């Protein structure tokens, strides 16, 4: 594990770029949105909100629903246009001197901080340590620390106690839990905690529910932090359909469905990992244990393999745009067993072609 300041990878590259211009011909293993979503009942709830579009959005009911879902007062909740907006608000609203981002992880937090004029330090987690967190590696004078849990793209689920140990008086600790609802039981979550000083938890509803095009997420933090972020928001930042989705996705029916989906994802991920292990003699290594709805792999000639996979009809996420990784890394979204089986056959072919 080492610390360094930024520069290098394209922080604005995301998985959607891998499927753009590929049309329906590409099987998508590049974007970490659950397949076959949003479900019909959620589409109906969203459609039912369209009759209210003439009125300005009123987020009070959705905000109260999110607060109730986590057992928190509404003053600790801020609804946002996806988790990405929350990163921009944090970068613009908080007065920090030394922000640190723990990588490899989702790159938007660092990009937002840099756009806001901050100089960002990086703590790079190492493959040989399993990309696990060592709280002692974070500089003591860091007054803003950002970490994902489970982390995109490594699929590492850090122990909640280890993440909470990053908290310090005078430090803002931002934990991106965008994929936590894909973890059975949401173990290691900090979203409901109010005893960790400076804690800010970000949640997204776009991944599990297939709402990336609608943009809905939320921030959980101390009331004074929420107030600072709210002042930095434009008026009516979350649309009426997105508010309807937020209220629906934190209801009892949705939570039960998400819990079921998390167990199914875990089983499908185990099937994917087992298949990937068969390529170990060819130099492929899986970053394990994987706990998110995606898997990180390292393999020879990964760039060529990715291009051959695309020719064979499969899109996967390149890894070299994540600080701390290089061209030999790929991220694979977890899909159902039939899709995985077909993908593994294509991977075998792609690796053969890349080796020629």
TrEMBL record:
It holds the Pfam family Aminotran_1_2. Gene3D superfamilies: Aspartate Aminotransferase, domain 1, Type I PLP-dependent aspartate aminotransferase-like (Major domain). PROSITE patterns: AA_TRANSFER_CLASS_1 (PS00105). CDD domains: AAT_like. It comes from the Bacteria. Its EC number is 2.6.1.-. This is Aminotransferase. It comes from Streptomyces gilvifuscus. The lineage of its organism: Bacteria, Bacillati, Actinomycetota, Actinomycetes, Kitasatosporales.
């Amino acid at each position: 594990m080492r610390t360094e300041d930024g520069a290098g990878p394209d922080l604005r590259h995301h998985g959607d770029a891998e499927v753009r211009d590929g049309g329906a011909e590409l099987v998508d293993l590049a974007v970490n949105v659950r397949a076959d979503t949003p479900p019909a009942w959620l589409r109906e709830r969203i459609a039912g909100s369209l009759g209210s579009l003439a009125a300005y959005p009123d987020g009070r009911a959705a905000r109260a629903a999110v607060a109730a879902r986590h057992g928190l007062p509404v003053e600790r909740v801020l609804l946002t246009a996806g988790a990405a907006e929350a990163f921009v608000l944090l970068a613009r609203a908080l007065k920090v001197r030394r922000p640190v981002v723990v990588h490899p992880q989702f790159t938007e937090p660092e990009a937002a901080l840099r756009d806001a004029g901050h100089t960002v330090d990086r703590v790079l987690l190492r493959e040989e340590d399993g990309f696990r967190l060592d709280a002692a590696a974070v500089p003591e004078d860091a007054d803003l620390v950002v970490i994902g849990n489970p982390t995109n793209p490594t699929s590492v689920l850090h122990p909640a106690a280890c993440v909470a140990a990053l908290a310090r008086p005078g430090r803002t600790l931002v934990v991106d839990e965008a994929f936590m609802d894909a973890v059975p039981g949401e173990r290691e979550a900090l979203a409901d905690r109010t005893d960790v000083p400076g804690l800010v938890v970000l949640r997204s509803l776009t991944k599990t529910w297939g709402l990336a095009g609608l943009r809905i997420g939320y921030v959980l933090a101390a009331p004074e932090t929420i107030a600072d972020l709210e002042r930095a928001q434009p008026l009516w930042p979350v649309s009426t359909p997105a508010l309807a989705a937020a209220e629906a996705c934190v209801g009892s029916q949705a939570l039960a469905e998400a819990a079921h989906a998390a167990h199914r994802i875990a089983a499908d991920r185990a099937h994917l990992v087992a298949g990937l292990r068969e390529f170990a003699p060819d130099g492929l290594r899986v970053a394990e244990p994987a706990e998110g709805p995606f898997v990180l792999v390292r393999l020879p000639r990964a760039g060529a393999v990715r291009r051959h996979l695309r020719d064979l009809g499969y899109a996967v996420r390149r890894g070299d745009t994540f600080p701390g990784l290089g061209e030999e890394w790929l991220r694979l979204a977890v899909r159902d067993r039939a899709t995985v089986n077909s993908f593994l056959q294509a991977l075998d072919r792609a690796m053969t072609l890349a080796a020629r």
